[in-house]
């Protein structure tokens, strides 16, 4: 579902459409509440960290997962990721093989994450967790499984875009949420709020009183790869949760974004679409640029024609997160 503008209205002034759709939102909340109370069918013998959100849509779970992979690896822990493989055709459980699988088979996020750690795609997450444990996982990172009760969780992170907060605070379709804020956060151990300083202040002001667990602030920044972005005429396109964030990152790098094409989240990048984008970019004497997550969906013929902006999540104050990881894996001297 595409986001509606009224979803981002203040919670205390949601507007007429949100109020009219509130009965349907109540049904969404009820359905989620029933689902999350089911007993888990898998209790792995290794710690399970869930990276989820309350929003229906992108909040920064993928960069958060990559950051956790890096943090666990630095501790000497071997993490495996278990994902539903949204947008992919494979039911699994199957380990993602970048040489054999494409985004159409396993989904773009699992394909991207497979560059950092072993990734298992499984519509039955319990089966995926068992496969990961059998294959030697010392930690299981459950991607986007916060509302899925299939696997028992040892640590649950709720990721939120600090600039948007929890929108108007209502459930689909009256708002952007999968479940009410109070119900969801009652099961969370940490909230990871992603954004700059201004966004962080606004999030804590608007929502801080409703967050019963520690808030870990973080931001996403572009990797320094030596690419001379300054002054580059860029024809940017992105099919992520909030494309405008990718375009802002490119501008911050000094690129001249002459066109910004916002696509749907996970939108297939067909040859026809890329041919049209390439033609438009040539008419503007501009270079095609996209995100890492979009790049894994590019047709083979276009992979050398499109530049990619790699980004990583950095924790501003990781103390609560490190304390939670210490409880699962005592820090080594």
From TrEMBL:
SUPFAM superfamilies per record: P-loop containing nucleoside triphosphate hydrolases (SSF52540)
Stretch forming the signal peptide: none
GO cellular component: plasma membrane
Catalytically driven reaction(s): a lipid A disaccharide + ATP = a lipid IVA + ADP + H(+)
Catalytic activity, EC: 2.7.1.130
Associated pathway: Glycolipid biosynthesis; lipid IV(A) biosynthesis; lipid IV(A) from (3R)-3-hydroxytetradecanoyl-[acyl-carrier-protein] and UDP-N-acetyl-alpha-D-glucosamine: step 6/6
Cited InterPro entries: LpxK, P-loop_NTPase
One GO BP: lipopolysaccharide core region biosynthetic process
GO molecular function: ATP binding; lipid-A 4'-kinase activity
Family per record: Belongs to the LpxK family.
PANTHER family: TETRAACYLDISACCHARIDE 4'-KINASE, TETRAACYLDISACCHARIDE 4'-KINASE, MITOCHONDRIAL-RELATED
Record function comment: Transfers the gamma-phosphate of ATP to the 4'-position of a tetraacyldisaccharide 1-phosphate intermediate (termed DS-1-P) to form tetraacyldisaccharide 1,4'-bis-phosphate (lipid IVA).
NCBIfam families tied to this protein: lpxK
HAMAP family: LpxK (MF_00409)
Protein name per its UniProtKB record: Tetraacyldisaccharide 4'-kinase
Upper taxonomic lineage: Bacteria, Pseudomonadati, Pseudomonadota, Alphaproteobacteria, Rhodobacterales
């Amino acid at each position: 579902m595409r986001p509606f503008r009224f979803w981002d209205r203040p919670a205390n002034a949601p507007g007429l459409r949100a109020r009219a759709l509130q009965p349907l939102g109540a049904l969404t909340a009820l359905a989620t509440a029933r689902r999350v109370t089911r007993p888990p069918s898998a209790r792995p013998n290794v710690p399970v960290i869930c990276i989820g959100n309350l929003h229906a849509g992108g909040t920064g779970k993928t960069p958060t997962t990559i950051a956790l992979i890096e943090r666990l690896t630095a501790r000497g822990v071997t993490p495996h990721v278990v994902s539903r493989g949204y947008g992919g055709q494979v039911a699994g459980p199957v380990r993602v093989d970048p040489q054999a699988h494409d985004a159409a088979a396993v989904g773009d996020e699992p394909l991207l994450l497979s560059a950092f750690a072993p990734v298992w795609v499984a519509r039955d997450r319990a089966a995926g967790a068992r496969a990961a444990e059998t294959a030697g996982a010392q930690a299981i990172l459950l991607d986007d499984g916060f509302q899925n009760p299939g696997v028992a969780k040892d640590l649950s992170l709720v990721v939120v875009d600090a600039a948007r907060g929890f929108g108007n605070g209502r459930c689909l379709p009256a708002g952007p949420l999968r479940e009410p804020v109070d119900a969801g956060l009652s099961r969370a151990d940490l909230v990871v709020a992603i954004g700059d300083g201004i966004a962080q202040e606004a999030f804590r002001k608007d929502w801080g009183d409703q967050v019963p667990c520690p808030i870990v602030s973080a931001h996403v920044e572009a990797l320094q790869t030596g690419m001379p972005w300054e002054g580059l005429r860029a024809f940017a396109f992105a099919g992520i949760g909030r494309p405008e964030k990718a375009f802002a990152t490119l501008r911050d790098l000094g690129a001249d974004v002459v066109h910004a094409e916002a696509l749907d989240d996970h939108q297939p990048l067909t040859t026809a679409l890329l041919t049209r984008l390439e033609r438009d970019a040539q008419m503007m004497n501009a270079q095609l640029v996209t995100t890492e997550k979009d790049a894994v969906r590019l047709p083979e013929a276009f992979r050398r024609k499109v530049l990619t902006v790699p980004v990583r999540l950095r924790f501003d104050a990781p103390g609560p997160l490190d304390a939670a990881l210490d409880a699962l894996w005592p820090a080594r001297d």
